[in-house]
Each structure stands twice: as C-alpha cells, then as structure tokens.
Design a protein that fits this description.
Helices cover 51% and strands 14% of the residues. The chain is built from 11 helices and 10 strands. The strands form 2 sheets. It has a 5-stranded mixed β-barrel with strand order 2-3-10-5-4. Strands 6-7 form a two-stranded antiparallel ribbon. A hairpin with a 5-residue loop joins strand 2 and strand 3. Helix 5 packs across helix 7. The radius of gyration is 25 Å and the shape is globular. Bound molecules: flavin-adenine dinucleotide. The site of flavin-adenine dinucleotide has 20 residues, from strand 1, strand 3 and helix 8.
Length: 427
C-alpha cells in the first residue's frame, strides 16, 4: 500500500507534494493508505459520502467516516499519509464527482517537519478473521471540523487517478494469493512425506504404515495444488511482463498493444490468483487432516489470511464484471481479440512441436470454449437489452465462470508469451 501511494504522488502529485512526501514514504519513515470504503460505499464507490470543502488558501476541509482501511493507524512510523476519496461540495453525484485528497495523520509544515495532529480519529481496529498482523481501521476525518487535505491532480478526477495504484494493487493482491498458496502447498507436501497412515494399495496387510503421499487421493490433492499454484504464478508473471513491455514501448502502437493486454489480464490475474490461493490453502488443510484444523500447524492461518484477497482491491465479483466490459464491451476488439490473436499465433507455430503439440491441441480446444462462452453471453446481453420476450437467464450470473475460463486459457498460453514465434527451445 505504501509503495502504491508513493507511485501515486510520483505520477500525479505536484513538485511540492513530491518534495514534501515522497522521500519520507519511500524511506519507510512514513506509511501510506488507500481510503475508499465507507459503510454505504464498498463496491459502489459512487455512493461515497465523505465531503471536501474548498478553503481560501487552496487546501480542502475533509469530513466523513471510512472503514476497513489497511494500515489505517500504527505507531510504527511517525506519520501516515492517507489518500482519501471524497466529493467536493457542488460536484456531480456518482463516481464522476469524486476527487482524491492527500490527508496526513500529522500535518506537515512547508519545510517537511511535523506540525499539529490533523483531526483524523481512529474509531476502532476491525476484528478480522485473518491478516492479524495488519491493523485494518475505522477512521473518522474532520470530527472537529479541522481535517485538512491537499487535492491530488484535479477535482472530479479521483477515480481514474486511483486506478494508477489499483492496477498495481490488484496484481500485488494476486501475488499474495499465489505466495500463500505456494507456502501452503510446500507445507502440505512436507507433511504428506512425514505422516504415516495406512498401507500402500495392493501391499500385504502387515507391510506397515506408509507416508500418506503414497495414497493416490493425497497425490491428487498435491498435484492439483501444484498445478494451480504454478498456473497462478505464470499468469501473474505474464501480466507483469505486459506491464514491462508497455513501459518500455518505443512507439504509440506498441504501447497501446501492451496496455490492452495489461487491462485485459489484470482483473483475470487478480480474481484467479485470489480464488485459487484460497482453494489451494483449503486443500492443504485437507492434506493435514484434523491437525490442519488446529493451530498446531500454520495452514489454518494461511486459510484465514487467503480469504481476504477475493474481497479487497475490488471483490472478485467486480473483477469479473470489469473483465466482462473488456471481454464483451465496446473496447473488446482490441482487448479480447488481441489476446486471442497472440494465442493463435503461438498455437500455429507450435502445432507440430515435438514436445508441445499435445498441449497446443488442449489450448486450442479451451480457446474455442472461451469463444463459445463469449458468444453465448453476448447473445444473452443483446436479448436482454432489446427486451426480447424470450429472455435468457441473467448473464451476470455467469461473469465469474467466464472470468475463470479466461484465466485457464490465459494461464495455459502463458509459457509462450515471450516467444510467440515458436523459436524458443522447449525440449
Ligand atoms: C482485510 C481487508 C482490508 C481492506 N483494506 C481496505 C483499504 O485499505 N482501503 C479501502 O478503501 N478498503 C479496504 N477494504 C474494503 C474492501 O475494499 C471492500 O470490502 C470491498 O470493496 C467490498 O465492499 P463491501 O465490503 O462493502 O462489499 P459489497 O460491495 O457490499 O459487496 C458484497 C457482495 O456483493 C457483490 N457485489 C456488489 N456489487 C456488485 C455488482 N455491481 N455486481 C456484482 N456483484 C456485486 C460483491 O462482489 C460481494 O460479493 C478492505 C477489506 C478487507 C476485508
């Protein structure tokens, strides 16, 4: 979160803001937070009620109540820089009227030294299922009418600016999901090699207990965990590779190409990473049997921690909704089709490949299913929008399944992105 706030200032802050805040944040002296959620505004940020009122000196007075704020308060650092989403008096309703404010916990003097407290009150630390090492707080801004914030960029540009940070945060969330999954898998593997129970299938009764890894059902669980963990990892690596290519692009066309791959893959990687992270930790608990459910082993903590990833940085339902816009919406030509073209190119060059041919066939079948699913959903949307009497079940019920399918196909393709020409040696 703190890194993301530094990125936000670097990209959208004034020279003065960069000078005042960046070094302290990047050196770890101060931390940063992302302050969006309110009791009545979670996924629906358009319902934000926190207000900002312009002061004569160009600053803004902030007033409102925010909840579930990661790192909302701590005494580990001397200051916290909150990035608060609020509506300036007179701005339009909905997300178009939101602006972004930089609100320090302790005011910062022009020379960078600390001033007075800034009327930011910590009402409570939320009582969470997991992630106990991070204080998630309910904060009140401007209870006494003296909370001062600085505008970042322009009024009513809050949400697009936040997305500078959100796309990165979404991939970070996917990385956390993948890291927890990976460690849960390794713990399960170690346990399965040590835990003695039952005899091997087909062995004489008195042949003695064997490690549970010898049992086919346990091996199945371990292999599934390994496959999901590696699938998520490769998807994240590919999304990150697209970001690198976008940043290093030499021409407008090239930048647009990689930008569209990033936009398409970020919600997929986030939702898939979070969902699979949780599923893998749940399987790790199963491998541990009853001991896994107890606090003696760390998997119960992994399971509690992993769940949050499908809820924050936009719930997985919202990621699936975002993907639907990118998959089926007006921009889908450049986004979805561009991605499919990459896959086609890769398949074409590797159809006769000694090692990859069998996998390429599976990938092509999966890609066709993805296209069928997309065309089914498009038909549903068209029928609903034309109020056709023969209505399909509401297609929104399938967004998440569609997102999962896209993730499987994207993950299946990922080994080849750096070399869609097929010249890489795979053997
Ligand atoms: C551990 C943790 C840390 C957090 N840290 C922060 C933080 O630092 N800063 C911050 O601002 N917030 C933070 N949050 C809050 C988080 O971003 C919100 O919980 C999240 O945006 C969802 O909002 P909500 O809880 O109000 O759920 P709701 O928006 O009420 O959603 C409930 C359910 O309805 C679904 N839903 C809602 N609207 C739609 C729709 N239009 N289409 C389809 N499905 C929909 C959701 O997918 C979800 O399944 C944190 C949350 C947690 C758990």
């Amino acid at each position: 979160m703190t890194r993301g706030t530094a990125l936000l200032i670097a990209t959208h802050g004034t020279e003065d803001q960069k000078k005042k805040y960046m070094e302290k944040i990047l050196s770890g002296k101060w931390t940063g937070t992302m302050v969006l959620t309110e009791a009545g505004a979670g996924s629906d940020l358009g319902a934000t009620r926190t207000k900002a009122e312009r002061n004569q000196d160009g600053t803004y007075s902030i007033a409102g109540s925010k909840m579930l704020i990661t790192g909302g308060d701590t005494d580990l650092t001397e200051n916290i820089i909150h990035f608060v989403l609020a509506r300036v008096k007179g701005s339009p309703a909905g997300i178009e009227g939101l602006s972004l404010f930089l609100v320090p916990k302790i005011r910062v003097n022009p020379d960078g030294s600390l001033g007075e407290p800034n009327d930011v009150k910590t009402i409570s630390i939320e009582k969470k299922l997991g992630l106990k090492g991070s204080p998630t707080c309910h904060l009140n801004f401007g209870e006494e009418g003296s909370c001062i914030g600085e505008l970042v960029s322009k009024e009513n540009h809050g949400l697009p600016i936040f997305f500078t940070m959100m796309n990165e945060s979404r991939l970070i969330s996917a990385r956390h999901g993948s890291a927890v999954a990976s460690t849960a898998y390794l713990h399960a593997l170690a346990y399965a090699r040590e835990r003695l129970q039952g005899t091997e299938i087909g062995a004489p009764r008195d042949s003695g207990q064997v490690p549970i890894i010898k049992h086919p059902d346990v091996r199945r669980m371990l292999l599934q965990m390994k496959a999901y963990t590696e699938g998520v990892r490769i998807l994240i690596l590919y999304a990150s590779y697209c970001i690198d290519r976008e940043r290093m692009s030499q021409s407008k066309e090239e930048r647009q190409k990689w930008e569209s791959r990033t936009s398409f893959l970020t919600p997929v990687a986030k939702a898939y990473g979070a969902d699979m992270g949780f599923r893998v930790t749940e399987t790790a608990m199963q491998v541990h049997g009853g001991y896994g459910y107890m606090k003696d082993y760390p998997v119960e903590q992994f399971l509690r921690d992993a769940k949050a990833h499908s809820i924050f940085e936009g719930t997985n339902g919202i990621q699936a909704l975002t993907l639907t816009g990118r998959n089926l919406g007006q921009d889908s030509e450049g986004l979805f089709k561009g991605h499919l073209e990459d896959i086609d190119k890769f398949c074409k060059s590797n159809r006769k490949h000694q090692t990859l041919a069998g996998y390429v066939e599976i990938l092509e079948t999966a890609k066709m299913r993805c296209l069928t699913c997309r065309s089914f959903l498009s038909t549903c949307i068209r029928r609903i929008s034309r109020s056709c009497p023969l209505r399909h079940p509401i297609p929104g019920a399938f967004w998440r399944r569609n997102c999962r399918l896209v993730a499987y196909v994207a993950g299946g393709y990922c080994p080849g992105p750096a070399d869609s020409t097929g010249s890489r040696k795979w053997d």
